[in-house]
Structure formats: structure tokens, C-alpha cells
Amino acid sequence: MTFDFASLPTLDGFPRAGLDHGPTPLVPARRLGEALGVPRLLMKRDDVHPLGVGGNKLRKLDFHLGAALADGVDTVITFGALQTNHGRQTAAACARLGLRCELILTADVPRSGDAYERSGNLPLDLLFGASVHLCADGEEADVTYRQLCAEGGKIATIPVGGSNPLGVLGYLSATRELAVQLADLGVERARIIAPHASGATSAGLALGSALLGSLDLDVACVSHPLDEARPNVAQLVAGAAELLGIDAPGLGHVWMNDTTIGAGYGIPAPGTWDAVRLFGRTEGVVLDPVYTGKAAAAFVEWAAAGRYSPEETVVFLHTGGLPGLFGYAPEFMAEVQK
Ligand SMILES: Cc1ncc(COP(=O)(O)O)c(C=O)c1O
């Protein structure tokens, strides 16, 4: 039994913005695999893309901005935390497409100082020509949003993280891409490891793997606790299935856990930096302390608990986030100099 490509619905009816640059690399991670006792370890490098330093949001934005262009939109508004990767990728994509980009960013992570407020993703937002609106809280963000809408223009509003049923299609399509790469390597069954924050990444993987079969999915919650993340994924999968006119599949193949979330979104947990350093030391790969570092910490924890058999092919999905590391430069330096 291998992947059932015929069961995937066509996505031809959904306009795309042309951000796709072909398959992202799927590479062996031999030294990391040895360190973790997971010999058949691969890394899917969604951090590698020529636009805007890359990352998982570009796959969702291909659909969001495809719809926006088809609607004749000239302005894109989206939201996030100060160090949002989604905002930076939206800004880069808008630059390439010639769209005005308005980023409404809220200071909702308990971090401040030069690195957090003036480095990392923020300078890149400006470099890519976005207008950045810094808001103290959600209320101020609402007021700013209403003001921007009142200014006129043909506006597309993209939700936080690009996560709604349309955004899920980005990772439905990515699951197909991954299954083709695995099949080319002669791999007939695999387990994917991915992070969950706003949800469309894991929901797209959950939907894609349910339809294709022969794929399991382990999800590390990095932002919302398990009791919020689980229904979020189920809702996004159901919404995407409705959009596609198919029945929502069961999600028995999806396992989720929040053991490495720590004190909450944007706050590195004890194992986060260890995992960031392990990936750097063994593979020369850069993770960030908000998303991929926490997913990596979860993977380390699960591997140590014996969750993966040596025969199993495991794919760690690298979702990007490199600039975010520099938003945490002082903490990061203290860790690497230990
Ligand atoms: C680098 C990175 N990884 C993972 C995620 C989580 O993806 P999602 O929001 O689709 O759950 C994000 C979201 O902001 C991200 O920036």
C-alpha cells in the first residue's frame, strides 16, 4: 500500500498568485537522526524559498493572494505579533505582486528591547515596503483596522497566520508534494512532525495525509494548548473539506501534544534552546525559538520516549522563521555561549 494520489481533489479551480517555486528540498538528516535514535530521518525544508527568506506562509499566501488578485484587490491587510513571520512573508509576496501591504502588529508577547522591537522580522517588513502599525493590544488593532478600511481601496483581509479554510489548501498541496518526493525515494509510509499555531499548516497536512493514506502526523502545539488546538485543526479541516466539496475525513492518524509549549506563545521553554542548538550543531540548520524550536523540542522529547521505531521514516517539517531568531538575540547569545 502506498499513497493514493487519485483520492486528492483537484485544486485547479482556486486561483494562485504564482508564489510556488517548485518542490522545497526533502533532505536526509543523518547526524540529527543518529543523535535522536531515528535513523530514517528526513527534513522537508519549507524554510528554503527564494522569496522573502521563505517559510510556511508562502504556501497559504499563494491561495490567499491568488484570490485577492482575481478580485482586483490593490491593498492587503493582515495581523500578527511584533515578530510575525506571516507578516514578513505577506510583505514580501505583496512586494513581488505590486500590492500595498498594511501590517497590524500587536505587542502581545512579553518581550521588549532593541532586538525584539527593532531586529528580526520587523526591519524586513519595512524593507519589503509594508506599512507597519504597532498596536499595544487587540482593541487598538481593531481601531487601526477600521481606520485602514475607511481609507478606501480594494482591500483583502488575511486572517492571523493565513489560517482559514482557503489557507489550508496550501498544506494540502504541500502534502501531495511531499508524498511525490517520498515515493521517488521508494518510501511507502512515513510520519510527519509539524508545529501548530494558527493551525492551517497542520490542518492541511492532516487533510492531505487522511486522503493520501500511508502518512501519520505528530503535531507540536507551540501557541495554543491542546484543548484549543485540537478543535481548531478539526474545524479547519472541516472548512477546507466543505470548500472542496468532499466529506471531512476522520483524523485518527493525527496525534497532537503541547508538552513543550512552556509558558506560552513567544516565550522560549527550557528545552527550546537545547533543540535549536542540537539542530544547528548536527545539521547546520537554523531554527527559531517561537515555532520550529518548540516543535524540535517536542520531537526530541517524543524520540527519547521511544515513540519512533528505527524502521520508520520520519519527516521533520521545517516551517522557517529564521529572522525571528534575531528578535531573541540576547537570549540566543547567552545560550550559545554557555
Ligand atoms: C516559522 C513558523 N512555523 C510554524 C508556524 C505555525 O503554522 P500555523 O500558524 O499554520 O499553525 C508559523 C506561524 O506563524 C511560523 O511562522
Topology readout:
Blueprint: E1 26-28, H1 30-36, E2 41-45, H2 57-70, E3 75-81, H3 85-97, E4 100-106, H4 114-118, H5 121-127, E5 131-135, H6 138-150, E6 155-158, H7 165-184, E7 190-196, H8 200-212, E8 215-221, H9 226-244, E9 254-257, H10 270-283, H11 292-304, E10 314-318, H12 322-327, H13 329-336
Parallel strand pairs: 2-10, 3-4, 3-6, 4-5, 7-8, 7-10, 8-9
Antiparallel strand pairs: 1-2
Helix pairs in contact: 1-10, 2-3, 2-7, 3-5, 7-8, 7-9, 8-9, 10-11
The structure holds pyridoxal-5'-phosphate.
Pyridoxal-5'-phosphate binds next to helix 3, strand 7 and helix 8.
Unreliable spans are: none
Which class do the helix and strand fractions yield?
alpha/beta
The SSE string, one letter per element, is EHEHEHEHHEHEHEHEHEHHEHH
Ligands bound to this protein structure: pyridoxal-5'-phosphate
CATH topology name of the largest domain: Rossmann fold
